[in-house]
Amino acid sequence: MTARTLIPRIFSYQLTGHPWSARADKLQSATGLMLASFLVFHLHFESSILLGKEVFFHLVQILEGGLFTDDGRGVSAFTQIFSVFMLLIVVLHAAMALRRFPSQLGQWRALRGHLVCVKHKDTQAWFWQLATGFILFFLVPAHLFTMILHPEIGPNLSAARVVQDNFWLLYALLLPAVVIHGLIGLYRVAVKWGLVSNRSVLRKVIKLLIIYLILLGCASLLAYVVIGLDLPSQVSPYISKI
Amino acid sequence: MNQQTTSMSPENASGRLLNFHIFRYDPQQKGDKPRTEVYQLRETPGMTIFIALNQIRQQQDPSLQFDFVCRAGICGSCAMVINGLPTLACRTLTSKFKQGDITLMPLPGFELIGDLSVDTGKFMRELAERLKLWLHPHHHEIDVHSIEAPMAPEQAAALYELERCVECGVCVSACATKQMRETFVGAVGMMKIARFELDSRDGRTAEDFYHVIGNQDGVFGCMTLLGCQDNCPKDLPHMQQIAYLRRKMAATIL
Ligand code: SF4
Ligand code: FES
């Protein structure tokens, strides 16, 4: 802090307020909030496979805009457009969050030293967020590009993706990382902007939600694996019985 | 305290044996290397880390360096990291540690004077100069005949709440953001800004404060890890105040 303190304000944006600092912080929280809320819906929608192929099939039709087509069938181009939109949000969120990322070796060393020296739960939670954020940096684009290139979603087609194309590996890694990152993020947004004052209750709620969402996601993934193992090697789309 | 315990003296006492693992390093001494030294001491009733350190210095090692003034949690000079928690040594009872092993480290993030003693004063002074942590009145001309504007009791109470900061530096050491980013102002700086922001006698506007803390080294660099709030020995409301400042600062910019 020493020498830089002496630089008069006008010469250094680092010492004066910068309008983009506020914007970046707001954008990071807003995009994070959007992504985390989307995640919660996403995990629930895909878990509809647990209620049977029929339920999942119809839900997908509705979500792909089936309400607006003549035959009630969804269009998978909608998934593509939505995936591109999510990718943009993810890129924006990552760009804003990169400000936080320890960029120099010295910072990593300081962080490690700090984590070893001072025992503090919220700091450790942040560290997990940092680690999972790093993982998501690679996994989320992989997931989204798949959805952009092969947007077909359906009981059979999704199961084939999971089993025959070996996407179970991606999902098994993505699930815990994204749930942990997103929910700790929700907690942080809430305390950061002063939306919640009772932290201990919030912490418990978040912990329960993390466990619940991971279990839900695992159960769905398992359901796809079970379906996928039963499929013939030439997979045809699911035909609705209603 | 009952008769039996008061008559106990350290030498013949039946108190348990405490092991103090103390960080030792004197930067002034050429060739000195950082190391941990272990001192053993018998626990006495009501013993604080402050009392224990004084006994060690008196009876075992006069070269041991540490700071204290008030021994009552008022001056803020005795802060150190005790078993992983930065806090005031004079307000920490040894009985809190069931294992009997106590590790003492100097506060990280400050200039080390020697052993457990760090220079928080220099840091606080630089911070005050950088953030201009003093009252900036509305008018600069002083008119001794004008009557001072009254302050609502609620505001005075709120100000007093924030004035309780003893500048111990615990919140700076407990903050991973501050440890990674040397230029970050840290919780104590923001708490003090919040204090002047609240003060009706201070003429600075939200934009003025934005110039000082509206950046990555200020309120927007804070990652809300809340080590400050969870470790502050005076239980100051960091979380609430920093969130307030953040909302206030964010609202000045669209
Ligand atoms: S805010 Fe609390 S922890 Fe920080 S310097 Fe003041 S009293 Fe110490
Ligand atoms: S000696 Fe003054 S606060 Fe501990």
UniProtKB/TrEMBL annotation, chain A:
The gene is frdC. GO terms for cellular component: membrane. Its cofactor is heme. Heme b binds at residues 42, 93, 143, 181. InterPro entries: Fum_red_B_TM, SQR/QFR_C/D, SuccDH_FuR_B_TM-su. This is Fumarate reductase. It comes from Shewanella gelidii. It holds the Pfam family Sdh_cyt. Keywords: Heme, Iron, Membrane, Metal-binding, Transmembrane, Transmembrane helix. It is found in: Membrane. NCBIfam families: PRK13553.1, PRK13554.1. GO terms for molecular function: metal ion binding. GO terms for biological process: tricarboxylic acid cycle. Membrane-anchoring subunit of succinate dehydrogenase (SDH). The chain crosses the membrane at residues 27-45, 77-98, 126-148, 168-187, 208-227. Its main location: membrane. It comes from the Bacteria.
From TrEMBL, chain B:
Keywords: 2Fe-2S, 4Fe-4S, Iron, Iron-sulfur, Metal-binding, Oxidoreductase, Ubiquinone. One of its GO terms (biological process) is respiratory electron transport chain. One of its GO terms (molecular function) is electron transfer activity. It comes from the Bacteria. Its EC number is 1.3.5.1. Its cofactor is [2Fe-2S] cluster; [4Fe-4S] cluster; [3Fe-4S] cluster. Gene3D superfamilies: 3.10.20.30, Alpha-helical ferredoxin. It holds the Pfam family Fer4_8. PROSITE patterns: 2FE2S_FER_1 (PS00197), 4FE4S_FER_2 (PS51379). InterPro entries: 2Fe-2S_ferredoxin-like_sf, 2Fe2S_fd_BS, 4Fe4S_Fe-S-bd, Beta-grasp_dom_sf, Helical_ferredxn, SDH/FRD_Iron-Sulfur, Succ_DH/fum_Rdtase_Fe-S, Succ_DH/fum_Rdtase_N. Residues 156-185 form the 4Fe-4S ferredoxin-type domain. Belongs to the succinate dehydrogenase/fumarate reductase iron-sulfur protein family. Part of an enzyme complex containing three subunits: a flavoprotein (frdA), an iron-sulfur protein (frdB), and diheme cytochrome b (frdC). This is succinate dehydrogenase. The gene is frdB.
